[in-house]
Amino acid sequence: MVDSLSTTEKEKASIWNVPNQLTIGRLVLAIVCFVLISLQVYGAAFVVFLVAVSTDWIDGYWARKYNQVTKLGRILDPFVDKIIICGTFIFLCAEPQSGITAWFAVIVVGREILVTALRGFIEQQGGDFSARALGKWKMVFQCVAVSTSLVVLMGIAGPDAGWLDWTLLVAVWLAVLFTIYSGVDYIGAAIKMVRN
Q: How many domains does the chain have?
């Protein structure tokens, strides 16, 4: 009984647990996605992107359910999230007809840099700066915008796909608004923590 408990504790403490392996796998998939976009293989990029972002939910669920949250995971998971989202937007804004413009990529990257800086400062002071609900919605709308952009670039909807262009426009603007709003929300939370 003692041996089995000590083995379980070692597994929990291991940095090579399932959630961290999934996170590293997501980083590899992000790089593959960037290469596919640059090669204009949009269908494959779409599939790889969906698989990559789905592992974000899986590794978080696994870490919480089996108590496998590690310091490495707390650093690596948000870092990889930022790489795949910021990187995908940067690569897409270089593609004509993607619906993603350079100014939007700047907003996304700027917001992520700001939140990372705030999180580092607050946690250095001993505060908790965990992900907020608005941040999760922001991620959802950003993923929808990227996915819709890749579908548009695939050209599978044909010439009469005005509805898809409108869907992309709405998805991009929702992502923009939630990106800005969640950034402002994090600033407000950081100010409250500093005052307290």
A: 1
The vertex-132 CA angle with 127 and 133, nearest 5°, equals: 160
Write the pLDDT tens digit of every residue in 21-73: 899 999 999 999 999 999 999 999 999 999 999 988 888 778 778 777 777 77
Residue 156 φ/ψ, nearest 5 degrees? -80, -15
Which pLDDT belongs to residue 1? 43
- Residue 156: the pLDDT is 79
Dihedral sign computed on CA atoms, order 81, 87, 92, 93: positive
**Could you tell me the two tokens for 67?**
């108590």
Spatial distance between the Cα atoms of 11 and 78, rounded to a whole number of angstroms: 22
Number of residues that this document lists for the chain: 196
Query: Mean pLDDT: which of 7-16, 27-36, 96-105 is highest?
Result: 27-36
Range of the domain at 164: 2-195
Contact 175, 121 (CB under 8 A): no
Give backbone dihedrals phi and psi of 97, rounded to 5 degrees, phi first.
70, 10
| CATH number of the domain bearing residue 38 | 1.20.120.1760
